[in-house]
Amino acid sequence: MRPNGHLLLTTLHSGDLYTLDPKSPQPLIVASLPGATGLCGIATVDVRANIYAIGGGEHISFGFTPGTVAVWVVQIGENDMGVVLARIPVNATLNGMDSLPAKPHIVLGVDSKGGRVMRINTQTRHVDVAFDDPSLGPSPTFPLGVNGARIRDNHLYFTNSGQGTFARMPIDHDGNKVGNVEVVATLPQPPARADNAYDDFIFDHAGNAFVSLHSSSYVKITPKGDQSVFLNETGYSPGLIEPTSAALSLDGKTLYLSTAGTTVGTTVYGG
After folding, report:
1. How far is it, in rounded angstroms, from Cα 89 to Cα 125?
2. Cystine design at 144: which of 75, 112, 209, 250 (Cβ 3.0–4.6 Å)?
């Protein structure tokens, strides 16, 4: 969410970064990131200067071509035009990202296939592995592990698509792991598969997580781990197709939920 209340959006189908005014149905291209054919996570680096870190690369099925993954640092001007300040190569299958609250120029990006958390310094361009853990890796039923990632109350919260978990681990101000993983909730109907997997999520101000669940619902997970269906395809036409992520308005009163859409035969359902 940008300071003006507009959304920042990525897609795995191009290297274009979009912005969307919730009052207007037409998204605008902020920047086309060179070398990327698909984009993933977004992290705010400097909210006042409108600087963001965007992950992506040359997209292939369930990942990116090795050697093409990077974090692009983009500054957005008042005219909604973006300028690429840096491209930082990252040897990982990046997915969800978030910036460290005490050092927002440092971004944690999760590696969905490697089961790691990468640390990217957008000022020095130094990249290292913050930590790895078995709870971050994929499973035999689904090729992606850790997916969405948010930092809250000195914890890194994350979804693991393959293992079917919504979990958290304590971290310090530099993004190092300083305690054990705690599973907060698990997939309602395991095992995980392409049409039954947690994706990205957002917190409201009370600490409730709203988690996208493929192929057609969002679930609400309370701080105590109670899980319930928040939204599904009932009442929608053609339905809630492939939920992917969520964002919270600046005043905390509105949730924005994104979908990927799909193609059935020759019919394209947009996200």
Report:
1. 9
2. 112
